[in-house]
Specification:
Blueprint: H1 2-10, H2 16-41, H3 48-60, H4 64-93, H5 101-119, H6 125-151, H7 161-175, H8 193-220, H9 225-251
Helix pairs in contact: 1-9, 2-6, 2-8, 3-4, 4-6, 5-6, 5-9, 7-8
């Protein structure tokens, strides 16, 4: 039963329910990594708005070095998203059931690498801090593109600005007083409760992940990346194992 659930969670055949289940898990992971990453390098790496604004500020103030660093971080995020697109399209052309799981497994490996780099930050701070920032930006771009591709941009997991905005819009509709209008009136204002629920859920899981991630990194250090990586690998493995089995069976002599 659990194996079938995991296969559906990251498999090729998608439903709205599985998209939302995966999005919720990834929002939790993103919140944990974002909070833990801040404790590691004193920077949030999941939202590009602040980085782009920082680049503009640094250029205006003549801090060319800082501006270039921000530009490289932006490039790392874009590269992560592009990598997800490459992996998904590669898997789609080969008709893999685990085409989405490829990027999740890569993210799991990169989280372990983040933990390894973080454990040695104090010894090689000048080298590893910039490298860790770029790695985290790449991971965030990679993950955000996964759920964006799967859900056709309905769900985002690494930054909450759009989520909070959409939630506010639906709350405004919910609170709007329609007066004497009938529910079938074209001008009747109606909240999309389903949309409001998924945005509230994603926001709550991102926030919960941030709390858990911050507490875990404070108490366990960079070993806190291990359970996060294990979670992603556990979700990705069944679909990829099924593909490997099918490929092996197809190559066996008849």
């Amino acid at each position: 039963m659990a194996l079938q659930f995991l296969q559906r969670l990251t498999g090729r055949d998608r439903t709205r329910t599985t998209n939302r289940q995966l999005g919720g898990v990834l929002a939790f992971v993103a919140g944990a990594v974002n909070a833990g990453g801040f404790l590691a390098v004193a920077r949030y790496t999941s939202h590009m708005s602040g980085i782009i604004s920082g680049i503009a500020d640094d250029l205006a103030l003549g801090s060319i070095g800082l501006a270039m660093a921000g530009l490289v971080a932006l490039g790392a995020f874009v590269a992560g998203a592009a990598t997800t697109a490459l992996l998904i399209n590669w898997g789609r052309h080969r008709q893999l059931h685990g085409k989405y799981a490829l990027a999740l497994l890569l993210e799991a490996g990169l989280l372990l690498l983040f933990g390894l780099l973080g454990a040695n930050l104090h010894n090689f701070k000048a080298l590893l801090v910039p490298t860790t920032v770029l790695l985290l930006c790449f991971i965030m771009g990679l993950q955000n593109a996964i759920i964006t591709k799967i859900s056709n941009a309905e769900i985002r997991t690494t930054h909450m600005t759009g989520v909070v905005t959409d939630l506010g819009i639906e709350l405004g509709r919910l609170l709007y007083w329609n007066g004497q209008r009938d529910a079938d009136d074209p001008m009747y204002v109606r909240a999309n409760r389903d949309k409001m629920w998924i945005h509230a859920t994603v926001l709550a899981l991102f926030f919960s992940g941030g709390i858990v991630g911050a507490l875990a990194f404070r108490s366990l250090g960079f070993s806190a990346t291990i359970p996060l990586a294990a979670l992603l690998a556990t979700m990705a493995t069944p679909a990829l194992a099924g593909d490997l089995h099918r490929i092996t069976q197809a190559r066996l002599p008849r």
